[in-house]
Amino acid sequence: MTAPYLSLAPLVAWRGLPRPLDWPALFGRSAPLELEIGCGNGEVLVRRALARPGLNLVGLDEDWLSARRSLRRINLAGAANVRLLQAEAGLALERLFAPESLGRAACFFPRPWPRPREAGRRLLNRRFLRLLGSRLAPGGSLRVLTDAVAYAQWVLEQAAGSGFTARARRVPPGLDSKYERKWQGQGQQEFYELTLEKTEHLTWPNPEEPRLHYPRLESFDPARLAPFEDWGPISVLCKDVLYDPAQGRALLRMVVLEEGLEQSFYLEVLPEADGHLLRPAPGCGLLPSLGVQRALKVAAARLQGE
């Protein structure tokens, strides 16, 4: 059986690190920092790393299978100037990169979500572009390639008011990526290249991560364990509950929705000598946020019948 990857060393275990990340420390050197958003199997990322050894390159992909393929390609090529992030793009930019820390960014063949009802799922909307622009240094740029002319036009519209000036042109195949080869195989010989150049710095600070307060429950009645929904500017949803009567412990499966961030995790009701403690279950890998603190508060009130 072929090993899915040879080493995890290029993968940044960012959840356990201070944020924003110290990229010179992670690379072991100071060098211009560039980002590929949605790096997929890593073939373009690795080619660029080998061609530009003076750059520090970060590949970003939310999908673990894609990250795994990138890891194998990075290791086989011996590309020492590449680091890999497995994370949602907006979350990574907001929390893992300091303002004005990136030289350039690229996004090749983002999913166009062509149906009108899917438009809200497109990545390069105005909000995302404002966030990305805040992380680019003065004069930084974003390069986008797409096969879809409607998507290219939509991105140009989103660039207005984002701190970028944008231009587009038609280009022949030249990237030699998986998706470019796919569209070529279906007869497409013309693609759309967008260049967005940063012309205005729009402030977007790294979010503060609060120190979470874990409520102590003066009373805990397992009969109160039930799913619930608490909708608002920060929405707290309890999707399911589990209870172990032998140990007096419970788990609540939570979803928290707050601006720019959705998290799924478990809250644990843990018996102690002086009552019960409500805390995030170990191993959930959540990000401390106002939404998580609200989930703790809302769940505690419901479990105590308040």
Give a description of the structure.
The protein has 306 residues and is of the alpha/beta class. The protein is 26% helix and 30% strand. The chain has a 7-stranded mixed β-sheet with strand order 3-2-1-4-5-7-6, sandwiched between helices. Strands 8-13-12-11-10-9 form a 6-stranded antiparallel β-sheet, with helices on one face. Strand 2, helix 3 and strand 3 (82-86) form a beta-alpha-beta unit. Helix 2 runs parallel beside helix 3.
Low-pLDDT parts are none
Q: What is the mean pLDDT?
A: 94
Task: Give the % helix.
Answer: 25-40%
Q: Can you count the beta strands? A: 13
What is the distance, rounded to the nearest whole angstrom, between the alpha carbons of the first and last residues? 56 Å
How would the global form be characterised?
Answer: elongated
What is the N-to-C succession of helices and strands? HEHEHEHEHEHEHEEEEEEEH
How do the strands of the widest beta sheet line up side by side? 3-2-1-4-5-7-6
What is the fold-level CATH name, i.e. the topology of the largest domain?
Rossmann fold
CATH C-level class of the largest domain is Alpha Beta
Biggest sheet record? 7 strands, mixed
**What's the CATH H-level superfamily name of the largest domain?**
Vaccinia Virus protein VP39
CATH architecture of the largest domain: 3-Layer(aba) Sandwich
Q: What is the C-alpha radius of gyration, as a whole number of Å?
A: 22 Å
Structural class call reads: alpha/beta
Number of domains: 2
